[in-house]
Input
Amino acid sequence: MQGALGAAEMRRLITGFSVTMAVSAVAELGIADHLSHGPKTASDLARLSGTHEGYLTRVLRYLASEGVFEEQPGDLFALTERSYWLRSDVPGSMRPRAIYMGSAMSWMAWGNLLQCLRTGTSAFHVAFGEDIFDYLKRQPDAAATFNTFMAGQTAASVDAVLATYDFAGVRELVDVGGGRGALLAGILRANPDMHGVLLDMPEVIATAQPLLDQAGVSDRCRLLGGDFFEAVPAGADLYVLKFILHDWPDDRCIRLLRNCR
Output
């Protein structure tokens, strides 16, 4: 017979979804931000977040058992090394990721994984009847959650990209499906002689200007709304695709890569 440790670990994995949802909920409520200057009582946190004190206390205690928060005497809760990353004001914050993972579009898609495996149909399509990008066109709140998550995830990896790839000699770069421009902004900022083109769906491009302005690269970046399956801007020295190809079946990926070629 297998040991009790294996059973305990499997039990933890089976119930792991509850941790995901609890972390997502407190991230959405900004609990870590409310604790950024020191411990607070559950009562204070409920008042600040506009939530039910009793249920919030239960969730905070549950997450404390997972090391997300620290429960202290006097009904106080404090940040830990884990929940520090749920603060919205820290570089590399995981708050957008946590919020997205507990969102309806993520949760309902994962809930159809079994159907996906049985039929070979996208779980997201099973849940919503369309692909994620068509869905986002009609759901602005969901699109904001998704795009914020993508921008944060990309910003966290810019330094690794810059350390790995030599952009010397690149005069113009096209970021294909570049979202709000976090990757392109980082590359342009590190290469002051380079110009860039940010290509994505028009509704995404419409939200990109503030990030580029903040990075100080707007004067070297052209925004272009369009469908990269139809065409990409010609004549650039380098075409970048980050977190793009995994979204699509092989035939669409081939079409996109041929456009770039």
